[in-house]
Design goal:
The complex is a heterotrimer. Helix content of chain A is 76%, strand content 3%. By secondary structure, chain A is mainly alpha-helical. Chain B folds into two domains: 79 residues, NADH-ubiquinone/plastoquinone oxidoreductase chain 6, subunit NuoJ (Four Helix Bundle (Hemerythrin (Met), subunit A)); 42 residues. Chain B starts with a helix and ends in a 5-residue tail after the last helix. Classes of the chains: A mainly alpha, B mainly alpha, C mainly alpha.
Chain lengths: 602, 164, 107
Amino acid sequence: MLTAALLPILLPLACFFLLAICWPLRHLGKLAGAISSAVAIISCLSAVRLLNMVMSGAVDPQEGFTHTATWLVANGRTIAEVGIHVDGISASMLVVITLVAACVQVYSLGYLADEPEPHLGRYFTWHSLFIFAMGGLVLAPNLLQAFMCWELVGLCSYLLIGYYWTKPEAGHAAVKAFWITKFADMGLLAGLCVLYASTGAFEWDVRLATGTATLISALIFMGVMGKSAQVPLHVWLPNAMEGPTPVSALLHAATMVAAGVFLVVRAYPIFAQAPDVLLAMTYIGAITAFVAACTAVVQDDIKKVLAYSTCSQLGFMIAALGTGSILGGYFHLTTHAFFKALLFLGAGAAIHAVHSNSIHDMGGLIKKTPVSAVMFIIGAAALAGIPGLSGFFSKDIILEEMIHGGHWVPLGLLLVSAALTAFYMTRVVVIAFLGSPSEAVEKAHGAPIVMGAPMAALTILALVTGYAGAQLGGLWGGTIAFHVTPVGIAATSAGLAGVIYGVLLYGKGIAGPSSAGLRDFILSGPIDTFWRGTWDRGILPTAKRIAWTDRYVVDGAVNWFGWAAIKGSEAARRLQTGRAQDYAVAVIVGVLFFVLYGAVGG
Amino acid sequence: MMAWIAFSLIALVILNSALCVVRSTDLVHTVFWLALTLLGTAALFVHLDAEFLAAVQVLLYTGGVITLMLFGIMLTRRIEGVRVLHESGNHRRALASAVAVFGAIVTAIYRDKQTAHAVATDLPGTEELGQLFLQEMVLPFELLSLLLLAAMVGAIALARKVDP
Amino acid sequence: MTEVFAQPPGLTAYLLLAAMLFSIGLYGVLSRKNTLAILVSIELMANAVNINLVAFSRFSGDLTGQAFALFSIALTVAEVVIGIAIIVLMYRSHKSIDADATTALRG
């Protein structure tokens, strides 16, 4: 059991070390990529085997199998342990991670084929590290290991976003992502400290006083807000699109941003004791879903549309968790991972074809690259919640829970967001894939099989996962059953309305209400501007003042001792005149001193 | 009474000469004032019933040391005459040191209970002094001669003209 | 008052005389510029020591004081000899016997 659990994460770690240390191997980029992809596939297969063990009952899906090793010891007491905890939730997430990672790595072999080989090697090294880090996060037996892997995942994000480090925007985006998530992680760390102070350990299965639970949950949620791009800490996600498209697919759509959601699911015993935090989560999630969906409508860069879409869907998941629907949130996480990764890979195929990110440069791609276009459209339909596809099922559950909890305002926001989601995806599909080809598209060529096969795998999963709801529900300790409900019908209608409106507006060219002012406002990025202002006016001056204090006060105090020593020695030096009579006086003084000492003290 | 008069006269000579030694600007004058001080000391020794010592004092000090000093002056003077070097700056410090030391010694003198009640006793004469040197103190006596030899050789070695 | 002078001078008187001579000699050592003059002042100090020794010898009846005074005289003579040799050397190398001429040890 232990080896079965460790294999999916330790194999990629070994691959990482191999590529990191053995630099001649790494500099052979394509070979390094092949090795890394092979390891990722093996890792995925062993993760599936692990899931199989859990589903067949070798491990109880709720209790799970835990194995830990002592790590930190103080005062003879163990403070922290590392290890693995395999249950239904973590096993299925591990499969998702390794599967999407394997698809993305194989895809990258084709997408980044033109990259210089040493840089390609570097790319795959970070990918292997990422699988280990993310796997360590989901299999973590306590919150401390989760936090460590959380930070490691953030590091991988920084490294991969900044892959094109010769581009200044890429470097800036990497730093921005790292800084904002680090800012949020301060909250997470504080939460962990409070948890340790209250309970003396980092377990999530604890009973706490409501006040303490609220504090800890709020602090942990601050970290989640950063990692899972909730408003207002979402501003790094659009910038993260500077990284290569496969990276966006893996990290910033399927797995890393989902880590926040996963953490809430894991730590739910603590969150359940803090109903205020849960309520706040519901609202924040809904607001994020709405704001991000609005922003996605006006984007021209296909990756930015998908980025804001991811942000919006994460809002759905967080809102679901806020209402207490773990199953809804987690189910949506799983389906979203597959179809969003598919969408990004499809976008990558389109970008690869026309060498541009803008949807206006891609028209009628369905004629030139039919297979990838169809797969993208399937993914878009899944995202929009078209009945029958996976997104439909998972969104439905979330909205039903909203009604159960009586959260009308968030429900309204989510319904509107669902409509907007369908609308903006239709917009992208119509403009980029349908219609008449532009001249850039005339020269386009289809994606090679190494890019197409992973996309096909994800397409199948996007179609099928919705129907696996019952089995997954059993795995996660609840029931997922599909009913036809009023809210379901409302949501579906909203989605279809969005699709129809989009087709009318962009396909047939029927004029609709235009709001150039609103578009400009959204494109100006008000929240981003706010954070930029905070940085420029608040944090940077404070940091400069602290640096000044360090240089002149702290270092100054130390340097003062040196200065004093020099000045003192210069003064003492004047005693050495070289004249014998002066020395004689010194002798007299010394003798008198001793006489005095003897007379008084002795 | 007479003892006091004698003592006072001798003391006066000694102290006055000493003062002139330290305040004289001409080097030769300084040396001669020193000679007078040493003679005064010899007289004091006689007053203190140490006749042999007085003789030695006159011979060695007044005879030998003064002669040496005069030689020294002759060897180190400029051609144009005995150069008088200006005395400067250190007077205050020197005076303070001297006064401080004097104070310390006086305090030591008056603290000791025994000195106030010391009574002059008859001393043995020169013959006993000679016997002392050749019996109990023969070792320091002989070593002293070695010392003088060493001093002579050392002075010659130091100050001889080295052929260039 | 008169009874002090009725007796011959006590030990204290001689010791005070020696102390004064010593101090005068010290003043000379510390303030004179001419090296030879310093040597002369050292002589004064040595002389004071001898007076002390002889006085103690007189008032204790022990001849050891006089013997020591003799040794002291011999030692002083040796010291003067060496001192003059040094002064001659100094004159040869610095062309001056100013006490401030040699400041090679100046820090």
